[in-house]
Amino acid sequence: MKFSEQWLREWVQPEVSTAELAHQVTMAGLEVDGTEPVAGEFSGVVVGEVVKREQHPDADKLSLCQVSDGSETFQVVCGAANVREGLKIPFAKIGAVLPGNFKIKKAKLRGVESFGMLCAEAELGMAESSDGLMELPADATVGQDFREYMGLDDTIIEVDLTPNRADCLSMAGLAREVGVLNKADVTGVAIEPVAAVIGDQASVDVTARAQCPRYLSRIVKGVNVKAATPLWMVEKLRRGGIRSIDPVVDITNYVMLELGQPMHAFDLAQIEGGIRVRMAEQGEKLTLLDGQEVELNSDTLVIADHNKPLAIGGIMGGEHSGVAETTQDLLLEAAFFSPLAIAGRARNYGLHTDSSHRFERGVDYNLAASAMERATALVLQICGGQPGPVAEAVSEADLPQLAHIHLRRERAALVLGMTLADEEIEDILQRLGMKLTAVADGWQVVAPSYRFDIAIESDLIEELARIYGYENLPVRLPAAASPLARVPENRLPMGDLRRHLVSRGYQEAITYSFVDPQLQQAMDPQHAPIALLNPISTEMSVMRTNLLAGLVQAVSYNLKRQQSRVRLFETGLRFIPDGDELHQIPTLAFAATGSRLPQSWADADAETDFFDVKGDVESLLARTGQLASYRFVAGEHPALHPGQTAQIEKAGADGQWQPVGVMGALHPSLQKPLGVKQALYLVQLDLAAVRENRVPDFRELSKFPEMRRDLALVVAQDIAVDDVLTAIRAKAGDYLTKLNLFDVYVGKGIDPDRKSLALGLTWQHPSRTLTDEEVNDSVSSVLAHLEESLGATLRG
Known about the structure:
- This protein is elongated.
- By secondary structure, the chain is of the alpha+beta class.
- The strands form 10 sheets. Strands 27-30-31-35-34-33-32 form a 7-stranded mixed sheet, with helices on both faces. Strands 3, 4, 5, 6, 7 and 10 form a 6-stranded antiparallel sheet that branches. Strands 12-15-18-19-20 form a 5-stranded mixed sheet, with no helix packed on it.
- Helix 1 (5-11) packs across helix 4 (171-182) and helix 20 crosses helix 21 (772-790).
């Protein structure tokens, strides 16, 4: 928003310079984008009057003028089409200096001497272009210095307001803000009610009450729309960035700049029946003031008569109902439109107007009556006419409610880092227009109707900081108790888990929680994912129910870029819907493909297989200190190879095995669609299962020798090694300390339906040496149990 410093100082008189004022406003949160003079630098220009105009003897397009400066007359040659006798204009006399250091000298044009120059706005740096001479009012004092007459020793200050500070989109709002910052009194315009002379009222029917809770209208008859807009108003509009159009439109724009209330004036003769404030019918058409025809949407608020739409509420009027040269009677409109009813609607039609800019941010819902009286008075002053009474349609239930906020003295001191005196707090808030009631611990505050952004205690404290001055607040480091958080010993830190996987050759990946619904269906058809209401794209439109979908895409991406060995892991949430509830499960997943080891002269170039990845899982589970509590059993998963899939289970406190994860090779039917041409092994584990570790306890190392026995057992091919190990542990006794499989053999000398397992069993007693007899008894017990339960025999 642009505003004139001179106009501002008519409202409030801060004892600061222009630069200090700009800095002050910026530090208060109303950032100043820049300042510029209202006109170019020039001197020697006075108010002149053309007392005589003749045709140039040698040029059809030039005029020979006699121009008075109030004391003497000068001959001036002029090429402007609008020069005429009696016209008062800016007159640059000999010796004048115009913008760009252009000096006025005596000249000869087509053989005729010229003693000065008649000026247009552009030549004085008051406009970018001009169609002719600048015409001054008939009452301009001839001979008066033009800068003084126009008040051009002024600065335009442009402020970039944040959306929450719509209360400053007017001179009244800015003056109020500057007055608070400088503790200066604000003298606004005196607005008196205009008495009705006629009884005419328009019929107003508001059906969209939530969108338009307050609508005021007033008929003014017998106006002269051809009257000239006063120069003071034209200049204030120009300095506010608005060009003059006609007196009625200029008045509504002026009231908007002055008070902050957008208004509209209709040609009463173009209204059929009365005013209806309603929502548009889908596809309804309206030609706007800019000549653009728009097709209205049903979510658009319109001001209509009984037959047609007249305007888009709060945005722009219609072409055929606006003020024209033939207009004699006006219907003035001042309304409060809900910000939610206006926000985004202008952009839907490719529009952005001063009106929509204000309404979508919030206009004071109690301002319409004052604005109506101010506009009526200006219309009568400039255009004449007979006003009728103000008609108001209001829905109190749909108007915003004043915010009642409890401000605590101690909370303000804590947030500000200092204690402000009660008198200072009260002065700041009262100058901002707030009503205060003192209570024991602070104040009960009622925010004014023009401050839509004041809703909670923090907003009030921000206002105190803003007005007191951010630069005046002390710089202090925050002080807070920071006791060390408890670190449970039975919970593996995430950092340790990540570092362990990195040590195994994996790299951490972070993928989106949003995935392609088709990929999600392929990787986990058992769970219906939650669809996003506003997805980034169709490929990221559902929430993941597992982490494998994102990891597979990441692996595929790397493989396509010549990275043949890829090992990635990720920790994150998966989202499992369960009726009306949503379970967010912390999960760990990793993927491995390519060679077992990085390429090296010392290692064979073997490919990663199922057991390599199983070993990575076991090493991770071993970090919990309770590897024996986990087991791998053959399983199935829709996204994994049916012959290379294992379910990972953990023994619960009740001895029952509970599934905590799954691992296996990517299903061959998914490899091609996903762009994976080599074996890819995937693992997914519940994080809670791998982070619960056994609390370490001290056990004295045995000083006595170990006793080892190696067994070569022949079992059926379909018997899992885990079953064999479990059976051995059940009968080997309490002193079995180690049990490992070190060979599997099938082939010559072994029944094709059977396999040979070579196992090492180690016993050690903590306080004495075991005897061969004790160990042999344990071996015999193990062999008998294996033969009975699994049909295992010793290999001959």
